[in-house]
Backbone:
């Protein structure tokens, strides 16, 4: 391997049912920043079927070039089909960096690909920077969020990482951005396509994804029961773009769905405003919300660790605070 | 049917605390356990054994004390246990770890290879898919249920939106989530017998590998530094009644232009 042959920052543009995933746009935002430091290009790799029409959108979010691989075999994600495709793209275009969203797709594809390319892969990164020597520094949590580690891959290319959704910032979409669209035709070895999708079931939860909400009203064991969460929903309803989320304790108790869970084994969120109501602030919970712009914690225990990350802490019974806050806030917003 | 289950000994990260003075992990006194996802994988294998009479081999790469989880696996019902232990494996990242495990598994008979989805210490979820690649086998990750029928696995895979049903022929690699099942307890008889059973100790010479691809030497990634997260400076905390609390919250939200 000749290191200098490898150039440009590649992003795996994940799509599902032809919809570009938010994490792909977040990665383009980060890639744009890294490529700026390296003086290289941002290239989005978009595999799928009938997806070429989305290339322009990737450009508007920061790609300088989009490699479209439009094949019926790539309609749904399957490990081998995608691994063969991306592997051939890497061998032909030789990126120095390849970033993949750390979704169930990315964390299945990334390691398969890294082993095929005999290179390093850093898992579930939350920070990416370029060192003075121009190498990628990938920082990630380990030991259940207790430890952060900065990892490098200086002797192999590409430098690969999966990146946690919800952490990197998208660029503002710019309809005037221009870029190249390239079509790539992979050569499939279909004898290796051994996994068959029988069924892809979406359990419709009928609500907005909590990672998209501007305001999150999050409840923990202190909220206690379904009725308690109805009060939280009433508070959320006061805001135009708010959702209810929760700690794992309430998910384990069967009161809230897993797709509402914030934290290490749930989702990472970064809303403008995060209410932590009756949540103690376990490290696994903090891992998912501490990057929120403004955090208000209400807890009756003044020593609760949640206060160490809160921008505003209230030591009080949430059952008293929440209903009163709901009425007052509704009145305030009404006034406007 | 021959099933190989990859299990890893991990510190119970739930009980890890941070030394507030030095900002380092306190590992002393933290108990070691069988990684939770791996235990789910072992249970899945043992259920196939109960149903179809499979032969279950557990394998781990680790220091000599990893013997403990292999004995636990015996006590749950595993038939054979292999401990890969050698200084040459030390410092391995996921690529080198998966390469060593694949090198050992290559020398065994297998129809199905089961691993955990993710180890709670390294937390990468990379070892099993990388191992599947080294072995040239198909993989399904995030497995929560498995129906086996005559060389064909029907696997339920958890996704963000729901689940998928995937069909894959053996031999293949599955990675399993702890929530897939409720692992059985060790039986008393099993515990008694586990001490007398032989854990096979394998060194690097015993497996089918290129020694240059093992351990630190075979690892493309390097941990350059590790640290505990810097604490953000906490905001103000008010111990007040609800009336006052609501007043404070609303004025803050106005100040921040949130309302
Ligand atoms: C591997 C692993 C992964 C995990 N992943 C996650 C994760 O993704 N997300 C997550 O959240 N957790 C996760 N956890 C669990 C985590 O460790 C905690 O157990 C969990 O976050 C606790 O939830 P809680 O704060 O709601 O409950 P508790 O810790 O029980 O806290 C309840 C809080 O409510 C307060 N309270 C009670 N009544 C009132 C009242 N009337 N008014 C005001 N305050 C009140 C109490 O003072 C207390 O602080 C994980 C754990 C492990 C081991
Ligand atoms: C702080 C820190 C961060 C790290 N980050 C990275 C990184 O980003 N990339 C990287 O390549 N390496 C990384 N490593 C190295 C990595 O942790 C080790 O290679 C480790 O041996 C395997 O990774 P894991 O614990 O994440 O296992 P996972 O990949 O999460 O394990 C998945 C499954 O594979 C099986 N398995 C894993 N290890 C063994 C074993 N020793 N024996 C038997 N079965 C096993 C188990 O079934 C397990 O459930 C890091 C190490 C540290 C200390």
Residues:
């Amino acid at each position: 391997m000749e290191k200098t042959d490898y150039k440009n920052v590649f992003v795996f543009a994940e799509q599902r049912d032809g919809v570009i995933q938010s994490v792909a746009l977040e990665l383009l935002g980060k890639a744009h920043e890294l490529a700026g430091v390296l003086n290289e290009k941002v290239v989005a790799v978009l595999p799928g079927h009938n997806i070429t029409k989305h290339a322009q959108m990737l450009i508007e979010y920061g790609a300088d070039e989009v490699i479209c691989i439009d094949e019926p075999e790539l309609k749904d994600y399957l490990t081998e089909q995608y691994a063969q495709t991306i592997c051939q793209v890497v061998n032909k275009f030789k990126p120095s960096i390849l970033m993949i969203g750390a979704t169930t797709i990315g964390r299945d594809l990334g390691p398969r690909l890294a082993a095929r390319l005999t290179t390093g892969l850093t898992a579930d990164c939350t920070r990416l920077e370029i060192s003075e020597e121009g190498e990628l520094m990938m920082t990630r949590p380990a030991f259940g969020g207790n430890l952060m580690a900065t990892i490098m891959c200086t002797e192999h290319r590409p430098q690969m990482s999966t990146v946690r959704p919800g952490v990197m910032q998208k660029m503002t979409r710019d309809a005037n951005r221009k870029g190249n669209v390239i079509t790539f035709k992979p050569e499939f070895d279909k004898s290796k396509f051994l996994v068959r999708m029988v069924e892809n079931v979406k359990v419709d939860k009928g609500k907005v994804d909590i990672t998209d909400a501007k305001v999150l009203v999050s409840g923990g064991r202190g909220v206690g029961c379904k009725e308690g969460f109805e009060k939280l929903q009433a508070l959320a309803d006061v805001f135009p773009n708010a959702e209810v989320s929760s700690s794992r304790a309430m998910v384990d108790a069967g009161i809230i769905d897993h797709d509402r869970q914030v934290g290490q084994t749930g989702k990472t969120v970064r809303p403008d405003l995060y209410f932590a109501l009756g949540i103690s602030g376990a490290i696994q919970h903090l891992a998912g919300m501490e990057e929120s712009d403004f955090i208000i914690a209400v807890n009756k225990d003044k020593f609760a660790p949640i206060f160490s990350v809160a921008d505003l802490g209230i030591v009080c019974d949430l059952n008293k605070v929440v209903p009163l806050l709901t009425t007052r806030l509704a009145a305030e917003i009404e006034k406007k | 049917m021959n099933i190989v289950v990859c299990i890893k000994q991990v510190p119970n990260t739930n009980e890890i605390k941070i030394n507030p003075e030095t900002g380092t992990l306190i590992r002393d006194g933290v108990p070691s356990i069988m990684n939770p996802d791996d235990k789910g994988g072992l249970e899945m294998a043992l259920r196939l054994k109960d149903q179809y009479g499979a032969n279950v081999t557990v394998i781990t790469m680790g220091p000599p004390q990893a013997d403990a989880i292999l004995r636990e696996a015996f006590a749950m019902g595993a038939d054979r246990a292999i401990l890969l232990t050698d200084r040459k494996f030390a410092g391995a990242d996921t690529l080198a770890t998966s390469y060593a495990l694949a090198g050992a598994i290559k020398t065994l008979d297998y129809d199905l290879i089961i691993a955990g989805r993710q180890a709670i210490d390294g937390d990468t979820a990379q070892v099993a898919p990388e191992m599947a690649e080294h072995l040239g086998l198909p993989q399904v990750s995030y497995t929560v249920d498995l129906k086996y029928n005559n060389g064909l696995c029907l696997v339920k895979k958890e996704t963000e939106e729901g689940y998928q049903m995937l069909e894959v022929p053996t031999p293949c690699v599955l990675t399993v989530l702890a929530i897939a099942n409720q692992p059985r307890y060790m039986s008393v008889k099993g515990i008694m017998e586990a001490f007398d059973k032989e854990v096979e100790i394998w060194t690097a010479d015993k497996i089918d590998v290129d020694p240059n691809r093992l351990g630190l030497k075979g690892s493309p990634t390097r941990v350059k530094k590790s640290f505990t997260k810097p604490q953000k400076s906490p905001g103000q905390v008010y111990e007040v009644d609800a009336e006052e609390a609501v007043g404070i919250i609303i004025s803050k939200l106005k100040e921040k232009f949130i309302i």
